[in-house]
Amino acid sequence: MEHGGDVYTEGILKGKELIDFSSNINPLGVPSSFKENINEALESMERYPDVKYRNVKKHLKNYMKFSSSYFDSENQSLQKYIIDEEDIVIGNGAAEIIDLAISCFKNICIVVPSFIEYEKNAVKWECEIEYSYLKKNMDFDYKDILSKMKNSEALIIGNPNNPNGNVIDKDKFKAIIDYCQKNNKVILVDEAFSEFTGKRGFSLLKDMENNHCIFIIKALTKFYAMPGIRMGYGVSKNRELIKKIQEKQNPWNINCFAEVAVKYVLKDQQYIEESLKWIEEERSFITHKLKNIGFIEKVYTTYSNFVLCRLKNMDCNKLYDLCLEQGIAIRKCDNFKGLNEEYVRFAIKDRQSNEKIIEVLNSINHF
Ligand SMILES: Cc1ncc(COP(=O)(O)O)c(C=O)c1O
């Protein structure tokens, strides 16, 4: 399987229940603020959604302003957001926005290893691709990205990047933004996981306001635990690009359940606070424990809800099979460009599941 989250092939379709460490979804689950209001979606099912999604965009705009107190650093939260509804394009998951945004360019620089859809979409749209590889420590190679931008109309980069969870260093990235701004290039920043980074001010949302070269992609999928609702969005001051993407979309691409989700979960303060508390605790718990597993050579720095590890004397296929025998699905990373069978990725879940995977890995260690 190409992606994580395939609990069907070895699980459901074989009548087995697996603990899924291969996809990275907030274990607090679907927010109760959605469940309590689901009737609103049932009641609106018999009519078409607003084809312009005016209320959805209003809620997204409010969210980006309101959530600043949770995700911006202290000095950033003093600055005001100036996002307008016209700066937003909504999509059927972040995946639709990524795909259609990439389709607007003839050539693109893709930072790799990264979410494999970037490359698949670029190939599908016959874009020429320049690759910028992460450094050995999984940090971005800012100099290399800048040089690759000379031949590319656009860049796509994850912040945090999947599969390693590292984030953009804004000071080092500034030269790339300035270059793209001056030369009419576009930077697609995939922030599908950005909420998990907490109050550290890592998002480029604020930088987007004065730099029309920046296009941010976000979703309800990961932090609000709703992969099944398929709700994503793009935000940029580049109205031309927003319009180009909109022109490629089918009408009514978002259904009434996603509309209700946007209305309620994005102002669910209790859910946000509990999620931030959980991720800070569990990220440090699991990374610490993984460092003590004998066949794990390296645990990479992560600010997200997943951890990339390099194995020693063990390959990802063997580890995958051994974990599966004990009811756990992990993400093999050999199909990420730039990685090989030495790499695996683990989701960060609730304490009970995290303890379980550590127990399983320890048992394999002594095998
Ligand atoms: C980095 C990244 N961006 C985007 C997506 C797709 O998100 P969505 O399910 O909202 O389409 C994924 C899914 O795994 C991802 O890992």
UniProtKB/TrEMBL annotation:
<keyword id="KW-0456">Lyase</keyword>
<feature type="domain" description="Aminotransferase class I/classII large">
    <location>
        <begin position="17"/>
        <end position="360"/>
    </location>
</feature>
<dbReference type="GO" id="GO:0030170">
    <property type="term" value="F:pyridoxal phosphate binding"/>
</dbReference>
<dbReference type="Pfam" id="PF00155">
    <property type="entry name" value="Aminotran_1_2"/>
</dbReference>
<dbReference type="InterPro" id="IPR015424">
    <property type="entry name" value="PyrdxlP-dep_Trfase"/>
</dbReference>
<dbReference type="InterPro" id="IPR015422">
    <property type="entry name" value="PyrdxlP-dep_Trfase_small"/>
</dbReference>
<keyword id="KW-0663">Pyridoxal phosphate</keyword>
<dbReference type="GO" id="GO:0048472">
    <property type="term" value="F:threonine-phosphate decarboxylase activity"/>
</dbReference>
<dbReference type="InterPro" id="IPR004839">
    <property type="entry name" value="Aminotransferase_I/II_large"/>
</dbReference>
<protein>
    <submittedName>
        <fullName>Threonine-phosphate decarboxylase</fullName>
        <ecNumber>4.1.1.81</ecNumber>
    </submittedName>
</protein>
<dbReference type="InterPro" id="IPR015421">
    <property type="entry name" value="PyrdxlP-dep_Trfase_major"/>
</dbReference>
